């Protein structure tokens, strides 16, 4: 079982290390999907309009979906950057709130330091995404996770081989 998990971890690590273009393609496909969905909503809204059924909300939703889908599909890298900046803002606020909460919990909870550490890490992550090119930060994070996955995969395979060898050695003794 360790060997299988190790191989999965290695494949995951390789995907993260060499698959950045796949992420941008995934965003492009998502944008195209939203664009097509907006087109379908537009057709339904026009059909409802012709049948004198309610159509205003559908029409507004269709136009919004078409615009958002087009922006995402034609500029996937910029869309990702905007999304990551929003995550940076969120993480900065959450990190500050966690630090404030940890300070307030100092006398009530014995392991408040974990809350403080979590708050600081979240805050730093948010600030990195907000003030540094967020795509660069995420690429770096993806590469670090990829390297960790590769190392974990190699260790799991090594452990699997050792466990298998130990089991075979035990059965020979009996």
SSE arrangement:
Blueprint: H1 2-18, H2 20-50, H3 56-74, H4 76-104, H5 112-131, H6 134-173
Helix pairs in contact: 1-6, 2-3, 2-4, 3-4, 4-5, 5-6
Protein described:
The chain has 174 residues and is mainly α. The protein has one domain. 90% of the residues lie in helices and 0% in strands. It is built from six helices and no strands. Helix 2 packs antiparallel against helix 3. The longest helix is centred in the last third of the chain and has 40 residues, at 134-173. The protein is extended, with a radius of gyration of 25 Å.
What's the shape? extended
Poorly predicted residue ranges: none
| Total count of domains | 1
Approximately how much beta-strand content do the residues carry? under 5%
Count the E strands.
0
What structural category characterises the helix and strand content?
Answer: mainly alpha
Q: Total helix count?
A: 6
Q: Biggest β-sheet, characterized? A: none
Helix share, percent: over 70%
Q: Report the span from N to C terminus.
A: 24 Å
Helix-strand topology string: HHHHHH
Mean pLDDT: 85
**Cα-based radius of gyration, to the nearest Å:** 25 Å
Describe, in short, the structure shown:
The chain has 174 residues and is an all-alpha fold. The protein is built from six helices and no strands.
Notable features of this structure?
single chain, 174 residues, mainly alpha, extended
């Amino acid at each position: 079982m360790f060997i299988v998990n190790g191989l999965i971890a290695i494949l995951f690590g390789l995907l993260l290390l060499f698959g950045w273009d796949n992420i941008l393609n995934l965003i492009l496909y998502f944008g195209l999907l939203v664009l097509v969905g907006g087109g379908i909503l537009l057709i339904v809204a026009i059909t409802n309009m012709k049948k004198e059924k309610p159509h205003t909300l559908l029409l507004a939703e269709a136009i919004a979906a078409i615009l958002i889908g087009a922006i995402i599909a034609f500029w996937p890298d910029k869309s990702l950057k905007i999304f990551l900046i929003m995550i940076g803002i969120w993480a900065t606020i959450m990190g500050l709130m966690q630090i404030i909460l940890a300070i307030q919990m100092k006398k009530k909870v014995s392991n408040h330091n974990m809350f403080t550490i979590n708050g600081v890490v979240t805050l730093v992550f948010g600030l990195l995404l907000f003030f540094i090119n967020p795509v660069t930060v995420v690429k770096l994070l993806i590469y670090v996770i990829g390297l960790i996955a590769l190392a974990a995969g190699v260790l799991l395979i090594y452990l699997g081989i050792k466990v298998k060898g130990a089991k075979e050695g035990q059965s020979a003794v009996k």
